[in-house]
Amino acid sequence: IRPYKCELCEKAFTQRCSLESHMRKIHGVHQQYAYRQRRSKIFVCEDCGYTSSRPDEYFLHVRQRHPGSPALRRYYRRQAHENSTFAST
Question: How far is Cα 47 from Cα 88, in angstroms, rounded to an integer?
Fold first, then answer.
């Protein structure tokens, strides 16, 4: 699954940094980011390649389409851990 696509040549990458490196080396395009600037995150379904920039949309997709997904189990474990940590403070 390669969600990061070059707009100039349609080559696709699994990681944003690989796309940025490709853009710089092949097309001479330099990305300008402020120091420690957060860029938008993309959520990619490990089962079918569905992508979303919003975590709520992504997890809704996984819950509806892939209820037995390992990604969903990790999400539930993380939520349970965060809730137990928050409750104990």
Answer: 35
Q: Tokens at residue 70, please?
A: 């390992």
Other CB atoms closer than 10 Å to residue 47's CB: what's the count?
16
Output the six-digit token pair for 5. 């696509």
> pLDDT, tens digit, for every residue of 54-81?
888 999 999 999 998 888 888 888 888 7
Tokens of 18: 């690989």
Domains and CATH numbers, the chain: 1-37 (3.30.160.60), 40-89 (no CATH)
Cα–Cα separations (whole angstroms), residue 24 to 8, 17, 30, 55: 12, 10, 5, 29
Q: Which two tokens mark 78? A: 């993380």
Specify the pTM: 0.53
Mean pLDDT of the chain: 84
How far apart are alpha carbons 75 and 50 in whole angstroms? 17
List 12's β-bridge partners, or say none: 5
